[in-house]
Amino acid sequence: MKDRGLLIVLSGPSGVGKGTVRKAIFDNYSNEFDYSISMTTRKRREGEKEGIDYFFRTKEEFEQLIAEDGLLEYAEYVGNYYGTPLDYVNQTLDEGRDVFLEIEVQGALKVREKMPEGIFIFLSPPDLDELKSRIVNRGTDSDEMIERRMHKAVEELKLIQYYDYVVENDTVKNAARKIRNIIESEHLKVTRNLREYAEIIEEME
Amino acid sequence: MKDRGLLIVLSGPSGVGKGTVRKAIFDNYSNEFDYSISMTTRKRREGEKEGIDYFFRTKEEFEQLIAEDGLLEYAEYVGNYYGTPLDYVNQTLDEGRDVFLEIEVQGALKVREKMPEGIFIFLSPPDLDELKSRIVNRGTDSDEMIERRMHKAVEELKLIQYYDYVVENDTVKNAARKIRNIIESEHLKVTRNLREYAEIIEEME
């Protein structure tokens, strides 16, 4: 029997470059894990395939799933639902495949509630001091605007405490490599390999 | 203030190739951590330097340290003591440097008692099934010899449960790379970076 896969959740503040890093990871290590396919109620566009680009569902079906607690997380965006189907994630994990989820910080917190055993990685701006001075020194902004942006950045950074790892997005290549190494190292944890060794030991005794 | 370094303990069954893997790690990533320097009561040989090859001490000094609980672990070997001085390890860690210790399984367990916060990595034979048949199929050995070797191998493998990570020594290069990645990933844990982020957040608020 294969060990269960890992749920990898990549998140971080808006604008930090999650999508770019996720793409680099899949370009370089695509065969190592499955990307989590979202479910949506928006219309299928030409060329999009069910179960590959999205799981396409009606609004009624989606709301039924919400009622049944069948989504790891979901959100509404311009009148359509988007979410992560729990069944699909569980099935893939049961097959021993890792599932990779790239998601906003609020969604990640919801996932953490449902699957605390996941590996939660916070992608952080490369230089926090620079982030700060960038927010403050945009000459043209009103004080109110500066304060609002600073407040949002701080609120998002505070969520780091709910994550397992923090990776600075200094370069996309570096960040992708580090995230891939985190996943590899997690697989090397003794707690994930004890059963295999216990079986061998039993055979040898 | 720099965060405290990590104590990395590489161990594993006798003959698994710990020394070779440790050498590969230091050849490739030597500037990333300090190798733990042992203390010994054996005579200094020509060319050996105090504090580089060993800390050389008299038997009385060494036994004084044992009495003061000043060693992470120690053992006697052909009439001489060998051990890991606790002070040196703590000082290096306090300077923010990682300390790398390569050691037999029994010694590693003693280190774990004194420094449970260390990262304990078990280097495992590449193929346990092969290990088993290698032990059994050495044509010339007596049944008793086979049994004794099998027993020792099993006893050593059972100690895996006291470690954090298990790395198969399939190739020296692979094993060295994985161990280096484990150390890097451990440094990316949020718990080791919270203070830095808390400071930035405080400044921004």
Measured between the Cα atoms of the first and last residue of chain A, the distance is 21 Å
- Give the tally of β-strands of chain A: 9
Largest interface: A-B, 34 and 34 residues
Structural class of chain A: alpha/beta
- The 3D shape of chain A can be described as globular
Oligomer: homodimer
Assign the CATH topology of the domain at 7-36 and 98-204 in chain A. Rossmann fold
What top-tier CATH class of the domain at 7-36 and 98-204 in chain A fits best? Alpha Beta
Helix content of chain A: 40-55%
Could you provide a short overview of the structure?
The structure is a homodimer of 205-residue chains. Helices cover 47% and strands 20% of the residues of chain A. Chain A is of the alpha/beta class and 205 residues long.
Write up what this structure looks like.
The structure is a homodimer of 205-residue chains. In chain A, strand 5 and strand 6 form a beta hairpin. The first copy, chain A, has a domain of 137 residues: P-loop containing nucleotide triphosphate hydrolases (Rossmann fold). The first copy, chain A, is globular, with a radius of gyration of 20 Å. Chain A has 205 residues and is an alpha/beta fold. Chain A is built from eight helices and nine strands. The two termini of chain A are 21 Å apart. In chain A, 47% of the residues lie in helices and 20% in strands. In chain A, the strands form two sheets. Chain A has a five-stranded parallel β-sheet, with helices on both faces. Chain A has a four-stranded mixed β-sheet with strand order 4-3-6-5. At the A-B interface, helix 5, helix 6, strand 9, helix 7 and helix 8 of A face helix 5, helix 6, strand 9, helix 7 and helix 8 of B.
